[in-house]
Amino acid sequence: MTERAAAQHERLLAVAREAGVPVSPITDRAADGLSETVTPQGIVAVCALVDRPQETILKPGAKLVVVLVDVADPGNAGTVIRVADAAGADAVVLAGDSVDPHNGKCVRAAAGSLFHPAITRIRDVDAALKACSAAGLRTFGAHGYADTELDQVTFDEPTAWVFGNEAHGLPQAVLETVDRAVKIPMYGRAESLNLATAAAICVYTNAMASRAATT
């Protein structure tokens, strides 16, 4: 922590020391070198990785899971993790060639939510979908050309939402594997929605419907 940051965040410094976390003073130049941002805050931490083995989180009892398949942009991935957290999702699965959730931009886009829902990485997409099904989750694939629209779906079972790459969407093999492909109805003239917006609509629609059904 830089001298300036220590003065601005005295409570954080105190909490760290109370928790037994070693805190070392660094120069502004060192903070610049250690940070990926243009204007670093002057605080740098060494943390354990947050992702967990799939078998510890994809098990019966999960109600809502978000699966990202080959999502390349760390800002999008972090934003979807934040959406999943806000909607009360149990877990986020980064499948295939999806970006590392520990990527600096992904961490910043998640705005703290990286530490709330369980996070797991599964390289094999088919294995990820099978793990969701084995956990009793119905799988919905977000697809702009699906026959079923979001407002036609009932959310009376545990669900895993599957979202694809920003440019290419979900591979055909995935669309053939999920229980149902679902599209967001478009009422205006926009051709499509970006990944994070689409995920927010689908996941929140699911979460609100499920909550309403249990209250």
From TrEMBL:
Keywords from the named record: Methyltransferase, Transferase
Signal peptide: none
Residues in tRNA/rRNA methyltransferase SpoU type domain copies: 64-204
CDD domains given in the database record: SpoU-like_rRNA-MTase
One Pfam short name: SpoU_sub_bind
Domain RNA 2-O ribose methyltransferase substrate binding, residue spans: 5-48
Biological process according to GO: methylation
Keyword Aminoacyl-tRNA synthetase on entry: no
GO molecular function, one term: methyltransferase activity
Keyword Translocase part of the UniProt annotation: no
InterPro entries registered for this protein in UniProt: Alpha/beta_knot_MTases, Ribosomal_eL30-like_sf, rRNA_Methyltransferase, SpoU_MeTrfase, SpoU_subst-bd, tRNA_m1G_MTases_N
Family: Belongs to the class IV-like SAM-binding methyltransferase superfamily. RNA methyltransferase TrmH family.
Protein's recorded name: TrmH family RNA methyltransferase
Originating organism: Amycolatopsis roodepoortensis
